[in-house]
Design brief:
Blueprint lengths: L1 E4 L2 E4 L2 H17 L7 E5 L4 H12 L3 E5 L5 H11 L3 E4 L2 H9 L9 E4 L14 E3 H14 L5
């Protein structure tokens, strides 16, 4: 797999990809995701989307995909009716939609963002964390609970 970082193509081997899937799976377990829980993703196509999707399946959860073009009202409906526990937002635009409808999403416990631009230092939201912090949380959980994913 390849992805572009700042205009430069970076390669990810399948072994690295799977290792990250397992690490993110551990991150989900550390967040309290249990079998049957829903994890929503609102992002353009990118490696993190696929990684979180497989990690969710690996911990026996269900992925709820949202289009980046969904307006806030639809995001509220989808998050509220799916009962998503964790939501991955690609960027500030997607995160703002989820935060705008927070009262409609009582089950939503964690908001994870991929991009940091416009987000870091702007929000006072205890449910918010970055993709990088989810990876770190997953690494810690994996070290303490090998084989859980």
């Amino acid at each position: 797999m390849r992805r572009k970082d700042y205009g430069v193509w970076q390669e990810i081997t399948w072994a690295e990809y799977w290792d990250l899937v397992v690490t993110i799976g551990h991150g989900l377990l550390a967040l309290g995701v249990e079998p049957g829980d829903r994890v929503s993703i609102q992002s353009e196509n990118r490696p993190e989307w696929l990684i979180l999707d497989l990690a969710t399946v690996a911990v026996r959860g269900t992925t709820v995909g949202l289009y980046p073009t969904n307006p806030a009202a639809e995001v509220g409906y989808l998050l509220g009716h799916s009962g998503a526990k964790v939501h991955l937002a690609e960027d500030q635009e997607q995160l703002d939609k989820a935060l705008d409808v927070a009262e409609q999403t009582p089950d939503l416990q964690h908001l994870v963002h991929i991009e940091t631009r416009g987000i870091v230092g702007r929000y006072d939201e205890p449910r918010l964390q970055s993709w990088t912090s989810l990876v770190e949380l997953g690494e810690q959980h994996r070290a303490a609970n090998p084989g859980a994913v």
